[in-house]
């Protein structure tokens, strides 16, 4: 099935993410729980859609004048995305297998349910956390702070959220507050800050607000103790 396309890095990214990885996940080697070499399966999908001539078309690398064939760039993107998203279990030397139930912890399952807005998960005890980056932190005045929730370890969650980001700085955890109903509490805190016009809407990522740790603390105190 030959396809027509514009030879760009954007095409390679989208093809690697939405075609190559999507089809690999459905292959018998993967669904059967067997070990597989990711690049071999990627080559199979690429050859299904692109001719040999199309695969050899050269595209300029992102930060140099060096040219790479399309088939290589697609495989690079597919491998990178698979690792970043933890799609498979890495055995070593490019060998992977699909995740089994034993590979997924209860915390991961509950975090996924919480992120998806599951009503039962929203009732879990957990942590509201706030973090930012050193270059953004200011003293005594509002600055960009991300406010999130987790039922697991805050440091692990923040590291997970910043993984693969374009920032060259490590995040700073500014505060963490244990609460009984983590889903509704986070939503309430966000809504208060949005009502105060503190939401940074047009920025990469979500849940960023121009606020202070003191303001977050006061909001959470009110949410958890409305009679105060």
Describe the structure.
By secondary structure, this protein is of the alpha+beta class. The protein folds into two domains: 9-103; 106-224, no CATH class. It is 44% helix and 19% strand. It contains ten helices and nine strands. The chain has helices at 9-24, 28-31, 38-49, 52-55, 70-84, 106-115, 119-122, 154-162, 182-195, 213-224; strands spanning 36-37, 58-60, 67-69, 88-92, 95-98, 126-132, 143-150, 172-179, 208-211. The strands form three sheets. It has a four-stranded antiparallel sheet with strand order 8-6-7-9. A three-stranded antiparallel sheet has the order 1-5-4. Strands 2-3 form a two-stranded antiparallel ribbon. α1 crosses α5 (70-84) and α9 (182-195) packs across α10. The mean pLDDT is 86.
DSSP strand count: 9
Strand portion, in percent? Answer: 15-25%
Q: State the helix count.
A: 10
Uncertain regions spanning at least 5 consecutive residues: none
What string, H for helix and E for strand, traces the elements in order?
Answer: HHEHHEEHEEHHEEHEHEH
Principal-axes geometry comes out as globular
What's the arrangement of strands in the largest beta sheet? 8-6-7-9
The main sheet comes to: 4 strands, antiparallel
Helix content, binned percent: 40-55%
Round the mean pLDDT to the nearest integer and report it: 86
Please state the structural category. alpha+beta
Q: How far is the N terminus from the C terminus?
A: 67 Å
Radius of gyration: 22 Å
Structural domain count: 2
